[in-house]
Amino acid sequence: MPKRIVIVGGGAGGTITANLLVRNLYRQLVNGEVVINMITNKPDHVYQPGFLYVVFDKIRPNEIVRKQRDLLDPHVNLFVDPAVKIDRENNVVFTKSGKGFPYDYLVVATGSRIVPENIPGLKEGGHWFYDLEGAVKLRDSLRNFQGGRVVIATGVPHKCPVAPLEITFMLHDYFKQKGMLDKVELYYTYPINRLHSLEPVSNWTYPQFEKKGIKYEVLFNMEEVDPVKKVVKSMEGTELNYDLLVTVPPHKGAPVVEESGMGKNGWVSTNRQTLRNEGFNNVYIVGDTTDLPISKAGSTAHFEADVIAERISSEVLEGSAATEYDGKVVCFVETGFDEATYVWFNYQTPPKPTPPSKMLHWMKLGYNRLYWLSARGVL
Predict the structure, then answer these.
(1) Do both 295 and 240 map to the same domain?
(2) Is 322 part of any domain?
(3) The dihedral of CA 320, 322, 262, 67: what is its sign?
(4) 12-24 vs 358-375: helix crossing angle, rounded to 10
């Protein structure tokens, strides 16, 4: 009987894990000693950081979409059949079509999703850039925007924690480039008592905002949007008028996680070093699905995928694994249209933003094009 590895989810974490496992276990796959099955809910793979660039016409929508099958090594069996139940007691995943996929090792890479409907009026009165449809809609609204107050508001929890800053900086340069910065008031809000969840990033941001004339308000948790009056209200009692509302909607995990009793709101209890699901030694969690107190970002998923692929490979080949995740996260932060900064951190080392530079901006643009190699496990 071959060792069966099932990966639920075809985003960055699941795809990289699958391709790295093929590299590590190639001989065993060829000999029929290992089988890798991926279960996903859609045939396409989307480079989600590209949404930000779609908003500003820097990337065409079709440039950030590939067929999932094309990104996977041929030795990975792909099933576009949404998982509806994960039975960890009996080591099997059930799909919408009624199939059951038994496993010896399970990788849960179900990601996260936006839930704008959790804030009344947001779907009707606000914009976002966390899915392709929303990014295109915001792009089109910006093309027709004549000026006024642009409010940036962030729901919690959410992935890609630097994105609210990036959209704000890029909006500044967008309006500057169009010669209408004097007709626009950028008003950034944030849910806690500083400008970003990471204190060093927050401290770096204050002088950047002051230099660019970006206004801000902290302790602003979106509670309701009135699309008729164009007002966004906070739980703290603040009401802000807007002409354009740009938001980061709150997020939840995948329904199958919660419906399988694996974690509230779709976040799974995960060991911070081994990335195993607490209490289940043959179940690994990667990417946004974890409940770890670190950024839900693409680089997080990538570094976790490296660890999980090494651990499963070692367990298959040697019966044990020692590789551990150190909490590493790397983020490029666009500070406008032609400069970016960079932060990296882990469980032990806090982030320290570097001075913005054109070089870092071009590095970020370069990675946008190289991502597909990363997904294939090459980078």
Answers:
(1) no
(2) yes
(3) negative
(4) 60
Cα–Cα dist 39/6, whole Å: 7
Contacts of 133 by beta carbon, 8 Å cutoff, 6+ apart: none
Q: What average pLDDT does range 300-309 have in this prediction?
A: 97
- In whole angstroms, give the CA distance from residue 343 to residue 352: 6
What's the rounded Cα separation, in Å, for the pair 3 and 182? 63
Q: Based on the domain organization, do 94 and 124 belong to the same domain? A: no
Q: Which amino acid is at 51?
A: F
- Note the pLDDT tens digit of each residue in 19-44: 999 999 999 999 999 999 999 999 99
Enter the DSSP assignment of 271.
Answer: -
Domain that holds residue 201: 115-248
90 and 167, same domain (yes or no): no
d(CA 93, CA 97): 12
Does residue 125 belong to any structural domain of this protein? yes
- Residue 355 included in any domain: no
What CATH number is given to the structural domain containing 19?
A: 3.50.50.60
- Cβ partners under 8 Å of residue 39, min gap 6: 6, 7, 8, 9, 79, 81, 82, 83, 93, 95, 101
Q: How far apart are CA 271 and CA 45, in angstroms?
A: 27
For residues 45 and 155, membership in a common domain is answered with no
Number of other residues whose CB lies within 10 A of the CB of residue 191: 22
Tokens 């399988």 belong to: 260
pLDDT at 298 over 90: yes
Please give the Cα distance from 121 to 279 (Å, whole number): 40
Beta strands in 183-258 (DSSP E): 184-189, 215-217, 222-226, 231-234, 239-241, 244-248, 251-253
SS3 of residue 73 by DSSP = coil
pTM for the full predicted model: 0.96
Q: Tell me if 364 is assigned to some domain.
A: no
A 10 A CB-CB count for 292 gives 20
Query: Nearest 10 degrees: CA dihedral of 256, 259, 265, 271?
Result: -80
Domain count, the chain: 2
Residues 127 and 231 in one domain: yes
